[in-house]
Each structure stands twice: as structure tokens, then as C-alpha cells.
Amino acid sequence: MEAKVAPSLLSADFGNLARDIEEINASAADYLHVDIMDGVFVPNISMGFPVLKAIKKSSKKPLDVHLMIVNPDQYVERFRDAGAAILTVHYEACTHLHRTIAHIKDCGMLAGVALNPHTPVEVLTDIIQDLDLVLIMTVNPGYGGQKFIEHSYAKLLRLKQMLKEAGSNAIVEVDGGVNFDNAEKLVNHGVSLLVAGNTVFSAPNKAEAVSKLKGR
Ligand code: DX5
Ligand code: ZN
User: Fold this and answer.
1) Catalytic status, residue 175
2) How far apart are CA 205 and CA 216, in angstroms?
3) What is the pLDDT of residues 129-152, one digit of tens each?
4) Distance CA 108, CA 102 (A)
5) What is the CATH number of domain 11-213?
6) Which of 85, 90, 187, 209 matches a 20 to 30 Å C-alpha distance to 171?
7) Is 178 in the pocket of ligand 1 (CB under 6 A)?
8) 7 Cβ below 6 A of ligand 1
């Protein structure tokens, strides 16, 4: 089975963003993954709306926006206006998750929920039917280039079962430590969208790296 791939721009050369995005445009990537960090939900700060809008101008790939921020509700319209196609919020950052998901969908975006490594997939039991995407964090969010957490496979199998029982076709995305060695195993555990930062952006040829992750 072939997975979709979303290169994570966090590992790009920020001094040459347009050039790096051009390389992704020319690749078989399905989305461009953009990480928004607020320095509160995670111990890092990445980028805000002006940069996101500039990315949108250059990118031919739809933007998969991963919010690692508190109070995401407050910014849903602004992320739509900045060009997000998928908007993913963290379960751990949302008190009224059902409302947040409805808000994202009302704004015309696909709605995703991300789970930190310690958060069991079972917390999504009563909302799974409303989700377009579930993002399993396979590292602790905040930084690129970290080591994949092996326990994630067990979570993915439980998620697969849960989606089956709910009759859901939600996209299953993984983010963190994805590489050429684990991509196929992840797909075999039900993953349909692979995020890859370091693996794509540290490769001599980014398009080749994307194709390799897709198993081509
Ligand atoms: C981490 C971010 C990731 C990150 C992944 O918090 O959510 O998207 O860029 O980077 P790699 O693929 O290098 O682990
Ligand atoms: Zn991410």
C-alpha cells in the first residue's frame, strides 16, 4: 500500500524557504506539513501568520497545519485565511474539543486531532466519528530530528481497530522520527499519511526522498 507524504517544513532552510518549497512542489508529496508552536504548549516557537501566508503563496501542495498551541479556537478563521487545508489541534490543548472540531469544519477545512505520546487513543472514542484525521505523535512535539518512539505501533493498532468499529475513514497521520526504515512498517500499521521533516530536508535530493518514503 502506498502512503501519502507530508514533508515538514520545520526542517527546511528558513533563509531559503521559497527555494525549499519549490523542491517540494516538484516532488510527489501530497501535502506540505507546517508546524505552529507557541512556546507554551511546547517548549519551542516556530512561526506565525505572516510566514504562513508567504508559505501558502509559494506552495503548490495543500497545507497540513499542525497547531501546537493553547487556545486554538481563537485562531481558526485566521488559519483558514492563511491557507490551511487541514487544521489539526492537540487533544491536550482543547477543553471543548467537540466545539473546536465543529468550528474547523464550519470554516471549510479538514479537522484533525493530534495525540501526544502519553495520550491513549481511547480518549477519542466519543469523537472519532467527527474527525477527518487523527495525528499520532511519534515523538514529543516541539522539535524535528528526534528518535521515533517504538510504543507508537501498539497505539496505531488500537486506533485502526477503533476506526474500524466506528466505520470511520479518517486519515491516520504519524509525525516524528519517520524515516526510510520505518515507513513501510507504519503503513502496515494503518498509517495513510507520513510526516517527515529531517528525512526529506536533510536528503541530497528531496523529491527522491519523498518517493522513497512512498515506496516508489
Ligand atoms: C515536531 C513536529 C514535526 C517535526 C518532525 O513537533 O510536529 O512535524 O518537524 O520532524 P522529524 O520528521 O525530523 O522528526
Ligand atoms: Zn508536526
Assistant:
1) yes
2) 14
3) 999 999 999 999 999 999 999 999
4) 10
5) 3.20.20.70
6) 209
7) yes
8) no
